[in-house]
Amino acid sequence: MDKNVLGTALKACCYAPKTGFYRDGFCKTGPEDVGTHVVCAIMTEEFLVYTKSQGNDLSTPIKMYQFPGLKPGDKWCLCASRWKQAYRAGKAPDVLLEATHEKALEIIDFELLLEHKYSEDQP
Prior knowledge:
Elements: E1 37-42, H1 45-53, E2 75-79, H2 80-88, H3 110-115
Antiparallel strand pairs: 1-2
């Protein structure tokens, strides 16, 4: 069973758009996932602009990969190293802890994730 950063069962991040390295809605990882796509983050305009400026455009659709392009409010499994880089730049999006794989803790301190904890109750 895959676990989240809280030590409980990993919950789905998002099915629309379908996210995850395996495009199954979960931020699971495996040996072929060299980017470690394990952080379930809620996209913001600020983050999307930042990641595009770093060479990773997540907002432009790519039809050949059935990628719709992300917009603010979408949930997406980010590479742990990209999230940490965005954190250092003051641009990190909030994180759904229940859907963030425990493997993220090998790259990001739990306290940093907790600072950016997203709650479904938030506006």
